[in-house]
Amino acid sequence: MNIAKDLDKYISLVDVELRAAINKKNIYNTKIYDAMEYSLFTGGKRLRPIFAIKSYELFDDDLDKILPFAIAIEMIHTYSLIHDDLPSMDNDDLRRGKPTNHKVFGEAMAILAGDGLLNFAFEIMSNYSLNNMGSLIENNRNIRAIREIANYSGCNGMIGGQVLDILSNYDKMDEESLIYMYSTKTAALIQASIISGAIIGGACEEELESLRDFGLNLGLAYQIKDDLLDFNEDKSINKFTYLRYHSLEDAERKVEILSQKAINALDLLENRNTESLKSLTKLLINREI
After folding, report:
1. Which of 42, 154, 225, 251 is the most exposed place for a label (fewest CB within 10 A)?
2. What is the domain range of residue 140?
């Protein structure tokens, strides 16, 4: 399998769906849509929607059922990045090599762009669910997927992790708290993507639990790999990372252990073709940027 070519195909698909979904400008709301579009299309990897699609494809091949949820997750992810970059949060000037949203549109508009994307995500998922009401089983899957995404992106998930990140600037963070922050701020939305895709596809409860484990271990490995890649920059600003408590060699071993746990979780999915997810896992863990 040519995983890079495969990813390019899904990135293009997600981009087309995002542009179609967000094409609702009128003479009064142009500025907010411009701000949302700016951050949506600044070269993101689309990892989370791709994970939703790949997880769904373990069980079904009708992509029309998963795409609304996949692009909604990308909107939630993008809103979180806009807010993370704000002066009151990480105070970043650049994102993916381009000026951050508040540097282009101002702080107030950036806040509203993030708010807009979050609300837009749930509008898309709920509209799809209402307009495509089928069997009771299918309707329940849609509702459950929306609930999972809300839980993983909320105060017990991504937002909760961001709170810990902010507090780490004022209080000493121990390693246990750091891992909890990683499992919520980073891994949670990856889990949301994987689990929602599997739910829409029709996974059973045992399969969902294996995929939860896959997403958690992958998310932790992904974040620690980021710590390794950003070591010099993070050290210069005294940022709390996994490398505050461990050597580079130990962190590299931890990435290997966690990624192997992720792959082992996929092996529990009997009679499912998980090779694509395994290839994507290895690609992410071995990346150099």
Report:
1. 154
2. 3-285
